[in-house]
Amino acid sequence: MSPTRTARRRLPAAHPLFVAVLAVLPFTAAAQDATTAQKEASTLDAVKVTAARKVENIQDVPVSISTVSGEKLDALASGGTDVRYLSGRVPSLNIESSFGRAFPRFYIRGYGNTDFRLNTSQPVSLVYDDIVQENPILKGFPIFDVEQVEVLRGPQGSLFGRNTPAGVVKFDSVRPSQEFEGYGKVGYGSDNLWNVEAAVGGALSARWSARVSALYQRRDDWVKNTGPGPNDGLEGYDESAVRAQFLYEGDTFEALLGAHKRHLNGTARLFRGNIFKKGSNDFVPGFDENKVSIDGLNHSELDSSGANARLSWDLGNFKLSSITGYETVDTFSVGDIDGTSGPYFTADVPFASETADGIPSHSQWTQELRLESQNEGPLNWQTGLFYFKEDYDVDSVSYDTTNGSKQDGFQRINQTNDAWAVFGGLTFQATDKLELRAGARYTIDKKDLTVKDYWNTGFSPCIAPTLTNPPGIAKCDLAGLLAAQQAAFAAGDAVDPYLSASTKDKKFNWDFSATYAVNDTVNVYGRVATGFRGSSIQSAGAFNEKTVADPETVLSFEAGVKADFWDNRARLNASVYHYRVKDQQLTAVGGSTGNANILLNADKSVGKGFELDLQAYLTDNLLVTLGSGYNHTEIKDADLSVAGCFSCTVTNPLDANGKVLINGNSLPQAPEWTHNMTARWSLPLADGTQLYVFTDWAYRSEVNFFLYQSKEFTGKSLLEGGLRVGYQWNDGDYDVALYGRNITNQIRATGGIDFNNLTGFINEPRLWGVEFKTRF
Prior knowledge:
This protein is mostly beta strands. The chain folds into two domains: about 15-460 and about 500-540 and about 540-770, TonB-dependent receptor, beta-barrel domain (Maltoporin, Chain A); about 460-495, no CATH class. About 5% of the residues lie in helices and about 50% in strands. The strands form nine sheets. The protein has a 22-stranded antiparallel beta barrel.
């Protein structure tokens, strides 16, 4: 039952840049009036979103929403980076990972989950082409040939449902059409980086059309391993993905059929041992991001695929929709967790740690049926049913680095998750200016976790002292407990108290909102909404006992304004919010108890803040966007404590047992400030040609990596910028550009490992390249 895989080898009030840009805006705007008065001004196109499960103007939807599309998506993706490039690119969104390209963790308004286990859930839901991507590995599917990315902030517990208390990140691929069209893109950059995309589509008949798109990315290792490990270089990868869609358009029936596949082969997240100076979050003297010294394995491989069918029937006054989806993933990732090559059993490296996690078997089925009205009158509604079924195994493996990376431990668990829901929504145009909306959803969510196999020779399993044990079996004897569990199952017992667990949650969620049209271009809105995340289960292992976290619920209040002004040359969306999470699920990761993963419930946590999105044509040839988010989060539980780090400097008080009290701390990976900016300036030349410059910047303030506060594991503020200088001809059908990512080469720790030494991992360094794109 053991896998065999081959290894491939304090916070500023606002950022100065953001303040400076705001200060310049009024003067630039005044200057442009004089220079463009004699010609027709550029205007902003309306943005269509599907936040309410139907196509609407973003200005009419009473939810805080940001979108990313078009040239901005192209620029952000030019460096071959994975989905994490969206982090900070809209207000209040943070994305990080301790698995590299394979397992992104999303946070909206500071609300997320740092759990690194492969059976974890997140309070931010990711929806790709109307199909929820529940497993965290599925959330990393590459972004290519995408029409638009929507980020919906705040609970989306009515129309999108379970595991959406923080919000939804929604991706919509470009649909097939009757028009023959497509594009091709080739980019080459530092470290032999290749970034290739292509798509082609068009009519197959009068009713049928199709579109096929593909992605290929690769990069050589850019980190040299100076240690004795099997990998001479690290951080390289090659990744490919493909998507095929077929669209049938009848008079009253439409069918959109799709399938997709992904393959990733590369190095896992690179952990760097003892990179922090003791007593501070500065890197140690001589730190070099291009070098590391490790002696363990490092490899990551992933294959995923899926298919979906989105059907709709136009029944006159009604529309019936069916959305069916299937997803599966197979992944394995191994890394040198201590991030060093020894010497071990010293103050700097107390012990070696080399582990792997994988999913050898997985399936996810989803089915949604939705009926909606299509009335001309003031009242419209939608109602539906939703079913979710997931079944998968998770492997956890440990190795003895001091004995040639020989495997010394193994565990396989199985988790199933079944959920049913009924939902509905109403929209009522109460007056010419006032629109009211309400939504409701009732969900039943059931999980079962079973340990199928366990053995360990490298560590005594007596680190789990609170397990309930059958007669004659020591509390920490996991192998004995497994045998007792298997005997109980063989005897016909449905659930045993030792290693397995079952949960069943029932929850009613609702939301209510009102939108008032101040005039034709300005709307104000208010919204109150609830959401929930079902219970979570983590199995017992060599380092931790079985833990179960109760479901968490959130109540959120939001108010905002959405305005188009300056003759549709500028657009402003702004919102303020407050939320309270009751029984929030927290994960105590690592700490002095070892490589543990303990689930906890805090009495509550709170968040408050605001978001601002501004877009404006300052001149006909200069488009500027600005975004800002302020997110203050706080854990409120006077008695909640966790194990502190093994060797860092904790700044929180301790309880009587020597554990760290975390009451009043911010949530982990929750920056208080996020700012983003883009600017595009063009110089028209001959007909259909232009030179252009595009720059983008994203800033986040400092973050806590863990639930407690410490000097070393506090991530410094991070500012990353991109630059693109290009030439377009034939009305934009051809584009060639030079680009740079993280052009200031600011290197920061973005996460850490705290159970052994002062280990961390960092952001991507500066990268330069050239890219050519053609449309047809």
